[in-house]
Amino acid sequence: MRRTAAEGRGPVRYGPPAPEPGLPVLPELTAVLAAAAGRSAPEPPGGGAAVREAACRHWARRGLPVEPDAVAAGPGGPALLLALLGAYGGDVLLPRPCPAWWTPQIRLLGRRAYHVPTPAECGGVPDPYALLETVRRVRAEGGDPRVLLLSVADDPTATVPPPEVLREACEAAESAGLFVISDETWRDTLHRPHEDAVLSPAEMLPDQAAVLLDLSGALLPGGWPAAVVRFPGTARGTWLRARTLDVLTATGALVAGPVAVAAAHALDEPAAVVARTRSAAALHAAVAAAAHRELLAVGALARPPRAGRHLYADLTPLRAGLARHGVGDAMELEDHLGARLGAPAPGGQRFDDELGALRFRLSTGPLLGATAEERLAALLAPDPLALPHVRRSLDRFASVLAELT
C-alpha cells in the first residue's frame, strides 16, 4: 500500500536537519567557546547586550542598520521562529517547497500553513499572483492569513531570488496586508558573491518585515544553537519584540552563555571567520556544481545551485528507470537514494513539495570526505575536485544516477 507523507516518517516529526558544512570547527571559535566555558548562567531572554550589539554591527555592514533594542537572540532558528510566530498570531503563507523546519513550527502552534507555488526562476519566495490569489481564497473561506515566511537564499532549492522577483513578492505581501519574516540564514553562503545581488525584504518593507538569521547556517557549528532576529524600528516592532521575549521566557528558550560569546565573536566577523566562511562557500559551490553537471548528464532537472551546501533535483524524467527499482514517489526515492549513496537524500515531501514528484535534496557535505582530515584537505585544496576522495564521492553519485537511466 502506498504511504502518504503524513504516515510513519512524515515531515513534521522527522524532518531532516539543515545541511551541515561537513568541516571541522574553526579553531578560533573553539578557543573563544572554551574561554567562556566558565559562564554557567544562560543569557537573559532575547540575549544579552554583547550578542545583540554584534548583530547590529553585522546587519549594518549589509545595509540594514538597527538598534540593539530592536534585536532578540534565541537558541537556534526553530526556537526563535516559534516564538516570533507565536507572538504575531494568524495563519502563515510559505513558498513550496520550503525548509523542512518551517511548517512544523506553524503546526505546533495550531495555526494553518498555506503553501504557495514559486516562480520559475527560483525558490524561496512565492509567485506574487499565486500569493494574492491564495490570500483571497483563504480569507473567503474564513482563514486569517497574516504572515508571509520567505527566504532570500533558499533551503532546499539552493537558489537566490533575483531582486525584481523578490520586490514583486514583497509588493504583493504589502498589498495583502501581510507581515514578512525573511529567513536570511544562508545569505552569506553565495556561490558567486560578485554576480548575485541579495536584497532583504527589510530594505523594501522597513515597517513590516523581520529578518531571521540562524548562525549555524554560515557562522557557527550546528551543535552551538544561536539565532538572532531583527524587528522593524516601529511601535509595532517594539510590541512584537516584547511579545517574542514573553514566549522565549515562557518556553525557557535561552542562549547558553558560552555559545552567546562565540556567537557575538562570529557576528563581528574577524578575519579568520570571514576567511572560513568564504572558503567553505567556494568549496561547496565547486562540489555542488559538479553534482549538478552529473544530474544534467542523465537528463534530470535542477536549477543551478547558487547558495548553501546542497542542491535540489527533480528526477521526474527518469521515472521509468526509477520504477524498475520500485520507486514511484518522493518517499520511495528518499529510501532508494539514501541506501545507494550511504547518506541522507531527503525527498521533496520533507519540504512540503508534492509527494508524487520525484524530487530530493542532496547535501554536499557528505561528498567532501569520510573523515575530518579528508574534509579539511578539501577545504584547503586549490582544486578540491582533483582530490581522489572527492572524485570517488562524485563518481559514486554519477554511478547511482546512471542506474536509473
Q: In summary, what is this structure?
A:
By secondary structure, the protein is α/β, with parallel strands linked by helices. It has helices at residues 27-35, 49-60, 77-88, 102-108, 128-140, 163-175, 201-204, 235-251, 257-267, 271-297, 319-324, 330-341, 372-380, 388-402; strands at 71-74, 91-96, 113-117, 145-151, 179-183, 209-214, 227-230, 310-314, 359-363.
Could you characterize the architecture of this molecule?
There is one protein chain. Helix 4 (102-108) links the parallel strand 2 (91-96) and strand 3. The longest helix is centred in the last third of the chain and has 27 residues, at 271-297. It is built from 14 helices and nine strands. It has helices at 27-35, 49-60, 77-88, 102-108, 128-140, 163-175, 201-204, 235-251, 257-267, 271-297, 319-324, 330-341, 372-380, 388-402; strands spanning 71-74, 91-96, 113-117, 145-151, 179-183, 209-214, 227-230, 310-314, 359-363. It has 405 residues and is of the alpha/beta class. The strands form two sheets. Strands 1-7-6-5-4-2-3 form a seven-stranded mixed beta sheet, with helices on both faces. Strands 8-9 form a two-stranded antiparallel ribbon. 41% of the residues lie in helices and 12% in strands.
Radius of gyration: 21 Å
Share of helical residues: 40-55%
| Distance, first to last CA | 26 Å
Biggest sheet architecture? 7 strands, mixed
Class inferred from helices and paired strands: alpha/beta
Q: Which of globular, elongated, flat, extended, rod-shaped describes the shape?
A: globular
- DSSP strand tally: 9
Strand/helix succession: HHEHEHEHEHEHEEHHHEHHEHH
Provide mean pLDDT, rounded. Answer: 94
Percent strand equals 5-15%
Individual helix count: 14
Largest sheet: spatial strand order: 1-7-6-5-4-2-3
**Low-confidence parts:** 1-12
